[in-house]
Design brief:
With about 280 residues, the protein is α/β, with parallel strands linked by helices. It folds into two domains: about 170 residues, HUPs (Rossmann fold), CATH 3.40.50.620; about 90 residues, Pantoate-beta-alanine ligase, C-terminal domain (Pantoate--beta-alanine Ligase, Chain: A,domain 2), CATH 3.30.1300. Helix content is about 40%, strand content about 20%. Helix 7 crosses helix 8 and helix 9 runs antiparallel to helix 10. It is globular, with a radius of gyration of 19 Å. The termini are far apart. It binds pantoate (PAF). The site of pantoate (PAF) has 10 residues, from strand 2 and helix 7.
Length: about 280
């Protein structure tokens, strides 16, 4: 596996690959890789001539300085995991290279930013859109792979690709879960043993909501989710939302013709986790 740390070098390499007719599958990450990332890379390698992974803990998408500071950084382990995967190239740039000057550009994704992650993490999607644009310009992928766990991020990037006419295809990969249902996330590493155990309740709450949605109102389902999580001392629910899967706008009622996303965000101890199921 080739490891590239400068923007100039990755552009040179991907330019060469493109002009020799090779197709590039790209998996952008912030590192602390888990099986979810490795599955995306596997799919990218299968569907393209080669796969490229980026690892960059992007400062501009953190609205909470402590969260940025504590985000797991284990590059050496990640490199070992990537070497065993079908990743052909790792791009791991520095902050100075990606942001030679303070980012001034601001994105406005309209109503997508007024709900859920957009509402609770102001400025987050501007940071995501900025770094993803920079990475797309550098890596110039034919296909880019994102996980469904960050459903709203996927919707924002989809908008970005459409509005800025990026010439690539986006792939949204289903959530990869631990055996007990917890959605895989780099942040799970920060959970204590007890918090890790309680964290499984987020998926259990989503399953409960999914079952209840067949015969109950949105208000009743919301009430049931909040009641379900109450006994778990480590969990502080931030939101549970019933949303249209495309617009991600909240739905007041279930309608059999809608594809609905049940989305949850909660603190488990100090660690903020998100998850969703589509029904
Ligand atoms: O999903 C992530 O890991 C990040 O938000 C991304 C897409 C790599 C941008 O920093």
């Amino acid at each position: 596996m080739q490891i590239i740390t400068s923007l100039r070098d990755i552009k040179e390499q991907t330019e060469k690959l493109r002009s020799s007719g090779k197709t590039i599958g790209f998996v952008p990450t912030m590192g602390a890789l888990h099986q979810g990332h490795l599955t995306l890379l596997e799919t990218a390698a299968e569907q393209n001539d080669l796969s490229i992974c980026s690892i960059f803990v992007n400062p501009t998408q953190f609205n909470n300085a402590e969260d940025f500071k504590l985000y797991p950084r284990i590059l050496e382990n990640d490199i070992e995991a990537l070497k065993k995967s079908r990743c052909a190239m790792l791009f791991a740039p520095s902050v100075a290279d990606m942001y030679p000057e303070t980012l001034q550009l601001k994105f406005d994704f309209g109503e997508l930013e007024t709900v859920m992650e957009g509402k609770f993490r102001p400025g987050h999607f501007t940071g995501v859109a900025a770094i993803v644009s920079k990475l797309f310009h550098a890596v110039r992928p034919h296909k880019a792979y994102f996980g469904q766990k960050d459903l709203q991020q996927y919707a924002v990037i989809n908008r970005l690709v459409t509005d800025l006419s990026f010439d690539l295809e986006l792939v949204c990969h289903p959530i990869i879960r631990e055996a007990d249902g917890l959605a895989m996330s780099s942040r799970n590493r920060r959970l204590s043993e007890e918090q890790r155990e309680q964290a499984t309740q987020l998926y259990k709450a989503l399953q409960l909501a999914s079952g209840l949605s067949k015969a109950h109102t949105v208000a009743e389902v919301k009430e049931a989710v909040s009641k379900h999580l109450q006994p778990f001392a480590a969990i502080k629910l931030e939101y549970f939302e019933v949303a249209d899967v495309n617009s991600l706008q909240p739905l007041a009622e279930f309608d059999a013709s809608d594809r609905v996303a049940l989305c949850i965000a909660a603190y488990v101890g100090e660690v903020r986790l998100i998850d969703n199921v589509i029904i």
